[in-house]
Design goal:
With 191 residues, the protein is mainly beta. It is built from three helices and eleven strands. The strands form two sheets. It has a seven-stranded mixed barrel. Strands 4-3-10 form a three-stranded antiparallel β-sheet, with no helix packed on it. A hairpin with a 6-residue loop joins β7 and β8.
Length: 191
Amino acid sequence: MTSVDDVAGSGDLPYRTDVEIAVLLVSRRHRYAGRPADGALPAEGSELPDRVELRAGLGIVGDRYFASRAHVHASVTIIGLESLEAVGAELGVPVDPVATRRNVVLRGADVEALRGEPFSLESVGSGAPVLFRGYRPANPCAWMDHEVAPGAFRAMRGRGGVRCDPESDGVLTLGPAVLRTARPVALPAVD
């Protein structure tokens, strides 16, 4: 639910949306390399932590894109779980959010509306919010047809999430969180 929150310090991000951080993914290596028909590379260690550390301008500590000059303004990817559920409904299959390789999977907000916008995420009980700036869309690639489901590449267009950079240090954990934005980003009502 989005509301204007008069809490001190909300400043330029007056809209509050209660969300859930459903998945956190940190991968030491790029697993979708080469041809999709050859399959994904194996993981190096656990990729699904309960908590991640972020560094301003650098990304997620331990992730393959941390401090990567090639991924300026794209060190963290965020996607909405509702978008993936819609893709799954269209394709007639359940979609595993981990297969999309996005770092943060949120439930409860229109993540696509974060493109070009400042926002913050604060895990409930984990301290200060982490400030972000959304940049470009996290467009799907051909690997989605192989790793998610046939047709996923096309179905995920326009709802593959957003690439962003953290603008402050902080920690995110699985579970309830607060998303603060400059404009409302609540999910549209479903009939």
